[in-house]
Protein backbone atom coordinates (compact mmCIF):
# COMPACT_ATOMS: atom_id res chain seq x y z
CA UNK A 1 0.00 0.00 0.00
CA UNK A 2 1.40 3.39 -1.00
CA UNK A 3 1.25 5.90 1.85
CA UNK A 4 0.89 9.65 1.68
CA UNK A 5 3.40 11.15 4.11
CA UNK A 6 3.29 14.85 4.97
CA UNK A 7 5.58 16.97 7.12
CA UNK A 8 4.87 19.98 9.36
CA UNK A 9 5.79 23.68 9.30
CA UNK A 10 6.43 24.83 12.90
CA UNK A 11 4.96 28.33 12.68
CA UNK A 12 4.51 28.32 16.46
CA UNK A 13 8.25 27.86 17.10
CA UNK A 14 10.92 25.19 16.87
CA UNK A 15 13.96 23.95 18.72
CA UNK A 16 15.78 21.00 20.23
CA UNK A 17 13.89 20.78 23.52
CA UNK A 18 10.22 20.92 24.50
CA UNK A 19 9.09 23.46 27.09
CA UNK A 20 12.40 25.32 27.10
CA UNK A 21 14.03 28.25 25.32
CA UNK A 22 17.31 26.37 25.32
CA UNK A 23 18.11 25.28 21.78
CA UNK A 24 15.23 27.37 20.41
CA UNK A 25 15.53 29.00 17.01
CA UNK A 26 13.87 31.86 15.18
CA UNK A 27 11.12 30.71 12.84
CA UNK A 28 11.31 33.31 10.10
CA UNK A 29 10.44 33.01 6.42
CA UNK A 30 13.91 31.78 5.53
CA UNK A 31 13.66 28.92 7.99
CA UNK A 32 10.15 27.94 6.89
CA UNK A 33 11.37 28.01 3.29
CA UNK A 34 14.24 25.69 4.21
CA UNK A 35 11.84 23.19 5.76
CA UNK A 36 9.34 23.38 2.90
CA UNK A 37 11.99 22.93 0.23
CA UNK A 38 13.63 20.09 2.16
CA UNK A 39 10.26 18.35 2.56
CA UNK A 40 9.62 18.62 -1.17
CA UNK A 41 13.06 17.33 -2.15
CA UNK A 42 12.93 14.48 0.35
CA UNK A 43 9.64 13.08 -0.92
CA UNK A 44 7.01 14.38 1.49
CA UNK A 45 3.76 15.00 -0.35
CA UNK A 46 2.79 18.12 1.54
CA UNK A 47 3.03 20.10 4.76
CA UNK A 48 0.50 20.85 7.48
CA UNK A 49 0.52 24.49 8.58
CA UNK A 50 -1.01 24.87 12.06
CA UNK A 51 -3.50 27.51 13.18
CA UNK A 52 -4.17 29.47 16.35
CA UNK A 53 -3.03 32.65 18.03
CA UNK A 54 0.35 31.07 18.86
CA UNK A 55 1.03 30.54 15.13
CA UNK A 56 1.78 32.69 12.12
CA UNK A 57 -1.22 32.84 9.77
CA UNK A 58 -1.35 29.59 7.80
CA UNK A 59 -2.82 31.08 4.61
CA UNK A 60 -0.17 33.79 4.35
CA UNK A 61 2.60 31.31 5.08
CA UNK A 62 1.33 28.98 2.35
CA UNK A 63 1.00 31.82 -0.15
CA UNK A 64 4.55 32.97 0.59
CA UNK A 65 5.93 29.49 -0.11
CA UNK A 66 4.18 28.88 -3.44
CA UNK A 67 6.93 30.57 -5.52
CA UNK A 68 9.77 28.63 -3.86
CA UNK A 69 8.25 25.14 -4.27
CA UNK A 70 6.96 23.18 -7.26
CA UNK A 71 4.95 20.16 -6.16
CA UNK A 72 4.56 20.47 -2.38
CA UNK A 73 0.95 20.68 -1.16
CA UNK A 74 -0.15 23.01 1.62
CA UNK A 75 -2.75 21.97 4.21
CA UNK A 76 -4.18 25.17 5.71
CA UNK A 77 -6.95 25.82 8.21
CA UNK A 78 -10.56 26.78 7.59
CA UNK A 79 -12.06 28.49 10.64
CA UNK A 80 -15.89 28.42 10.69
CA UNK A 81 -17.41 31.19 12.76
CA UNK A 82 -14.40 33.44 12.25
CA UNK A 83 -14.74 34.01 8.51
CA UNK A 84 -17.71 33.90 6.15
CA UNK A 85 -18.04 30.73 4.03
CA UNK A 86 -18.29 32.81 0.85
CA UNK A 87 -15.05 34.69 1.49
CA UNK A 88 -13.37 31.48 2.62
CA UNK A 89 -14.41 29.75 -0.60
CA UNK A 90 -13.08 32.64 -2.70
CA UNK A 91 -9.77 32.58 -0.84
CA UNK A 92 -9.58 28.79 -1.19
CA UNK A 93 -10.14 28.97 -4.94
CA UNK A 94 -7.49 31.68 -5.25
CA UNK A 95 -4.92 29.72 -3.26
CA UNK A 96 -5.65 26.63 -5.32
CA UNK A 97 -5.39 28.55 -8.60
CA UNK A 98 -2.19 30.40 -7.74
CA UNK A 99 -0.51 27.24 -6.41
CA UNK A 100 -1.44 25.20 -9.47
CA UNK A 101 -3.77 22.88 -7.55
CA UNK A 102 -1.64 22.38 -4.45
CA UNK A 103 -4.09 23.62 -1.82
CA UNK A 104 -5.68 21.37 0.83
CA UNK A 105 -7.98 22.56 3.58
CA UNK A 106 -8.30 21.51 7.21
CA UNK A 107 -11.61 22.33 8.92
CA UNK A 108 -10.89 23.49 12.48
CA UNK A 109 -13.99 24.01 14.60
CA UNK A 110 -12.73 23.91 18.16
CA UNK A 111 -10.02 25.09 20.47
CA UNK A 112 -9.56 26.88 23.74
CA UNK A 113 -12.73 28.85 24.63
CA UNK A 114 -10.59 31.83 25.73
CA UNK A 115 -8.85 31.91 22.35
CA UNK A 116 -12.17 31.54 20.51
CA UNK A 117 -13.64 34.39 22.53
CA UNK A 118 -10.68 36.56 21.56
CA UNK A 119 -11.53 35.78 17.93
CA UNK A 120 -15.13 36.85 18.53
CA UNK A 121 -16.62 33.35 18.62
CA UNK A 122 -18.85 32.67 21.65
CA UNK A 123 -20.76 29.54 20.63
CA UNK A 124 -20.59 26.48 22.85
CA UNK A 125 -19.27 23.13 21.62
CA UNK A 126 -22.43 21.78 20.00
CA UNK A 127 -23.40 25.16 18.55
CA UNK A 128 -19.94 25.45 16.96
CA UNK A 129 -20.49 22.15 15.19
CA UNK A 130 -23.94 23.25 14.01
CA UNK A 131 -22.40 26.42 12.59
CA UNK A 132 -19.51 24.44 11.12
CA UNK A 133 -21.89 22.10 9.32
CA UNK A 134 -23.72 25.08 7.76
CA UNK A 135 -20.42 26.72 6.85
CA UNK A 136 -19.03 23.58 5.22
CA UNK A 137 -22.12 22.87 3.13
CA UNK A 138 -21.97 26.40 1.72
CA UNK A 139 -18.18 26.32 1.21
CA UNK A 140 -18.29 23.02 -0.63
CA UNK A 141 -21.22 24.02 -2.83
CA UNK A 142 -19.56 27.27 -3.88
CA UNK A 143 -16.31 25.58 -4.81
CA UNK A 144 -18.26 23.00 -6.81
CA UNK A 145 -19.72 25.77 -8.94
CA UNK A 146 -23.16 26.20 -7.43
CA UNK A 147 -25.04 29.41 -6.70
CA UNK A 148 -26.02 29.22 -3.04
CA UNK A 149 -28.93 30.68 -1.12
CA UNK A 150 -29.10 29.60 2.53
CA UNK A 151 -30.98 30.87 5.55
CA UNK A 152 -29.63 28.70 8.34
CA UNK A 153 -29.67 28.89 12.11
CA UNK A 154 -26.21 30.49 12.19
CA UNK A 155 -25.41 31.59 8.62
CA UNK A 156 -27.33 33.32 5.88
CA UNK A 157 -26.09 33.95 2.33
CA UNK A 158 -28.02 35.26 -0.68
CA UNK A 159 -27.02 34.55 -4.27
CA UNK A 160 -23.48 33.52 -3.33
CA UNK A 161 -21.22 32.23 -6.10
CA UNK A 162 -17.61 32.09 -7.28
CA UNK A 163 -16.45 33.71 -10.51
CA UNK A 164 -13.11 31.87 -10.58
CA UNK A 165 -13.20 28.09 -10.03
CA UNK A 166 -10.47 26.12 -8.27
CA UNK A 167 -7.98 24.07 -10.27
CA UNK A 168 -8.81 20.84 -8.44
CA UNK A 169 -12.19 19.48 -9.43
CA UNK A 170 -14.82 19.25 -8.22
CA UNK A 171 -12.98 21.15 -5.44
CA UNK A 172 -9.87 20.87 -3.25
CA UNK A 173 -10.00 18.07 -0.64
CA UNK A 174 -11.34 18.83 2.83
CA UNK A 175 -9.58 17.40 5.88
CA UNK A 176 -11.00 17.36 9.40
CA UNK A 177 -10.35 15.93 12.84
CA UNK A 178 -12.55 15.64 15.91
CA UNK A 179 -13.46 12.99 18.46
CA UNK A 180 -16.86 14.07 19.76
CA UNK A 181 -20.10 12.61 18.44
CA UNK A 182 -20.87 15.94 16.75
CA UNK A 183 -17.47 15.90 15.05
CA UNK A 184 -17.90 12.37 13.76
CA UNK A 185 -21.34 13.26 12.40
CA UNK A 186 -19.83 16.21 10.53
CA UNK A 187 -16.99 14.09 9.18
CA UNK A 188 -19.34 11.38 7.97
CA UNK A 189 -21.52 13.84 6.07
CA UNK A 190 -19.07 16.29 4.56
CA UNK A 191 -15.31 15.72 4.69
CA UNK A 192 -12.97 13.81 2.41
CA UNK A 193 -10.23 12.92 4.92
CA UNK A 194 -10.84 12.22 8.60
CA UNK A 195 -7.76 12.86 10.72
CA UNK A 196 -7.13 11.37 14.12
CA UNK A 197 -4.36 12.22 16.53
CA UNK A 198 -1.93 9.44 17.35
CA UNK A 199 -3.89 7.34 19.80
CA UNK A 200 -3.13 3.63 20.34
CA UNK A 201 -4.22 1.44 17.42
CA UNK A 202 -7.25 -0.02 19.18
CA UNK A 203 -8.68 3.43 19.87
CA UNK A 204 -7.97 4.51 16.28
CA UNK A 205 -9.70 1.37 15.02
CA UNK A 206 -12.82 2.24 17.01
CA UNK A 207 -12.88 5.80 15.61
CA UNK A 208 -12.51 4.59 12.04
CA UNK A 209 -15.37 2.13 12.52
CA UNK A 210 -17.62 4.92 13.84
CA UNK A 211 -16.88 7.25 10.93
CA UNK A 212 -17.27 4.50 8.34
CA UNK A 213 -20.60 3.37 9.75
CA UNK A 214 -22.02 6.90 9.86
CA UNK A 215 -20.63 7.81 6.43
CA UNK A 216 -22.35 4.75 4.96
CA UNK A 217 -25.69 6.21 6.07
CA UNK A 218 -25.01 9.14 3.72
CA UNK A 219 -23.86 6.82 0.94
CA UNK A 220 -20.32 8.16 1.35
CA UNK A 221 -16.82 6.79 1.86
CA UNK A 222 -14.23 8.74 3.85
CA UNK A 223 -10.46 8.38 3.73
CA UNK A 224 -8.41 8.34 6.93
CA UNK A 225 -5.20 9.99 8.11
CA UNK A 226 -3.27 10.29 11.36
CA UNK A 227 -1.24 13.10 12.93
CA UNK A 228 1.90 11.93 14.74
CA UNK A 229 5.34 13.06 15.80
CA UNK A 230 8.21 10.72 15.03
CA UNK A 231 11.60 10.08 16.61
CA UNK A 232 13.61 7.75 14.38
CA UNK A 233 17.27 6.86 14.81
CA UNK A 234 19.66 4.19 13.58
CA UNK A 235 18.80 2.01 16.59
CA UNK A 236 15.71 1.87 18.78
CA UNK A 237 17.88 2.44 21.84
CA UNK A 238 19.17 5.69 20.34
CA UNK A 239 15.60 6.73 19.51
CA UNK A 240 14.44 6.30 23.10
CA UNK A 241 17.45 8.30 24.32
CA UNK A 242 16.47 11.05 21.88
CA UNK A 243 12.92 10.99 23.26
CA UNK A 244 14.24 11.42 26.79
CA UNK A 245 16.53 14.22 25.59
CA UNK A 246 13.61 16.07 24.00
CA UNK A 247 12.06 16.62 27.46
CA UNK A 248 15.37 16.86 29.36
CA UNK A 249 14.82 20.54 30.24
CA UNK A 250 11.13 20.16 31.05
CA UNK A 251 10.32 20.78 34.72
CA UNK A 252 7.24 19.70 36.65
CA UNK A 253 5.94 23.26 37.02
CA UNK A 254 5.89 23.74 33.25
CA UNK A 255 4.05 20.43 32.80
CA UNK A 256 1.46 21.37 35.44
CA UNK A 257 0.89 24.78 33.85
CA UNK A 258 0.43 23.26 30.41
CA UNK A 259 -1.95 20.58 31.65
CA UNK A 260 -4.02 23.20 33.46
CA UNK A 261 -4.34 25.18 30.24
CA UNK A 262 -5.37 22.07 28.29
CA UNK A 263 -8.02 21.25 30.89
CA UNK A 264 -9.90 24.45 29.98
CA UNK A 265 -10.66 23.31 26.46
CA UNK A 266 -13.90 21.61 25.50
CA UNK A 267 -12.12 19.60 22.81
CA UNK A 268 -12.85 15.90 23.28
CA UNK A 269 -9.74 15.07 21.26
CA UNK A 270 -7.56 17.12 23.61
CA UNK A 271 -9.15 15.45 26.62
CA UNK A 272 -8.35 12.05 25.11
CA UNK A 273 -4.74 13.11 24.51
CA UNK A 274 -4.33 14.26 28.11
CA UNK A 275 -5.84 11.04 29.45
CA UNK A 276 -3.16 8.97 27.72
CA UNK A 277 -0.47 10.08 30.16
CA UNK A 278 -2.26 12.00 32.93
CA UNK A 279 0.60 14.50 33.07
CA UNK A 280 2.94 11.84 34.45
CA UNK A 281 6.47 11.14 33.19
CA UNK A 282 6.39 7.49 34.31
CA UNK A 283 3.63 6.34 31.92
CA UNK A 284 4.64 7.79 28.58
CA UNK A 285 4.92 4.63 26.46
CA UNK A 286 1.20 4.11 26.00
CA UNK A 287 1.48 1.45 23.30
CA UNK A 288 4.52 -0.32 21.80
CA UNK A 289 6.81 2.43 20.46
CA UNK A 290 4.07 5.07 20.93
CA UNK A 291 5.32 7.77 23.31
CA UNK A 292 3.12 10.49 24.82
CA UNK A 293 5.90 12.78 26.04
CA UNK A 294 5.15 15.53 23.52
CA UNK A 295 1.68 15.92 25.01
CA UNK A 296 3.07 16.87 28.41
CA UNK A 297 3.37 20.46 27.19
CA UNK A 298 2.10 20.57 23.62
CA UNK A 299 -1.59 20.86 22.76
CA UNK A 300 -3.10 18.87 19.93
CA UNK A 301 -1.11 15.93 18.62
CA UNK A 302 0.91 14.75 21.61
CA UNK A 303 2.32 11.34 20.70
CA UNK A 304 5.37 10.16 18.77
CA UNK A 305 6.41 6.90 17.18
CA UNK A 306 9.86 6.03 18.55
CA UNK A 307 12.33 3.53 17.14
CA UNK A 308 14.64 2.62 14.32
CA UNK A 309 13.41 2.80 10.74
CA UNK A 310 12.04 -0.75 10.45
CA UNK A 311 10.27 -0.52 13.81
CA UNK A 312 8.58 2.81 13.10
CA UNK A 313 7.59 1.55 9.64
CA UNK A 314 6.06 -1.55 11.22
CA UNK A 315 3.97 0.60 13.57
CA UNK A 316 2.85 2.78 10.67
CA UNK A 317 1.80 -0.31 8.74
CA UNK A 318 -0.29 -1.37 11.73
CA UNK A 319 -2.23 1.89 11.37
CA UNK A 320 -2.37 1.44 7.60
CA UNK A 321 -3.95 -1.99 8.11
CA UNK A 322 -6.77 -0.21 9.95
CA UNK A 323 -7.43 2.03 6.95
CA UNK A 324 -5.02 4.94 7.45
CA UNK A 325 -3.47 6.05 4.15
CA UNK A 326 -2.09 9.48 5.12
CA UNK A 327 0.46 10.20 7.83
CA UNK A 328 1.17 13.79 8.88
CA UNK A 329 4.47 13.64 10.75
CA UNK A 330 6.69 16.08 12.58
CA UNK A 331 9.82 16.10 14.74
CA UNK A 332 12.01 18.52 16.68
CA UNK A 333 13.79 20.37 15.22
CA UNK A 334 11.83 20.07 11.99
CA UNK A 335 14.58 20.72 9.47
CA UNK A 336 17.01 18.09 10.75
CA UNK A 337 14.29 15.56 11.56
CA UNK A 338 12.88 15.77 8.03
CA UNK A 339 16.22 14.44 6.79
CA UNK A 340 16.34 11.72 9.43
CA UNK A 341 12.86 10.53 8.47
CA UNK A 342 13.81 10.48 4.81
CA UNK A 343 17.08 8.64 5.36
CA UNK A 344 16.05 6.17 8.06
CA UNK A 345 12.30 5.62 7.62
CA UNK A 346 11.41 6.17 3.96
CA UNK A 347 13.44 3.18 2.68
CA UNK A 348 11.05 0.95 4.65
CA UNK A 349 7.84 2.50 3.27
CA UNK A 350 6.12 2.58 -0.09
CA UNK A 351 5.47 6.28 -0.67
CA UNK A 352 2.84 7.84 -2.88
CA UNK A 353 5.42 10.52 -3.77
CA UNK A 354 9.13 10.25 -4.43
CA UNK A 355 11.96 12.77 -4.28
CA UNK A 356 13.47 14.09 -7.50
CA UNK A 357 16.60 12.18 -8.47
CA UNK A 358 19.23 14.30 -10.17
CA UNK A 359 22.60 13.23 -8.79
CA UNK A 360 23.85 9.93 -7.44
CA UNK A 361 24.20 10.18 -3.65
CA UNK A 362 27.69 9.63 -2.32
CA UNK A 363 29.71 10.20 0.79
CA UNK A 364 32.67 12.50 1.14
CA UNK A 365 35.55 11.75 -1.23
CA UNK A 366 38.61 10.96 0.85
CA UNK A 367 42.12 11.62 -0.50
CA UNK A 368 40.94 11.82 -4.13
CA UNK A 369 40.04 8.13 -3.90
CA UNK A 370 36.79 8.42 -5.86
CA UNK A 371 37.92 6.32 -8.86
CA UNK A 372 39.35 3.56 -6.68
CA UNK A 373 36.20 3.42 -4.57
CA UNK A 374 33.99 3.19 -7.62
CA UNK A 375 36.16 0.41 -9.05
CA UNK A 376 35.98 -1.50 -5.76
CA UNK A 377 32.19 -1.18 -5.67
CA UNK A 378 31.89 -2.62 -9.17
TrEMBL record:
The keyword Cell inner membrane does not apply. Pfam families: Bac_luciferase (PF00296). The keyword Cell membrane does not apply. Residues 5-325 form the Luciferase-like domain. GO terms for molecular function: alkanesulfonate monooxygenase activity. Homotetramer. HAMAP family: Alkanesulf_monooxygen (MF_01229). FMNH(2) which is absolutely required for this enzymatic reaction, is provided by SsuE. This is Alkanesulfonate monooxygenase.
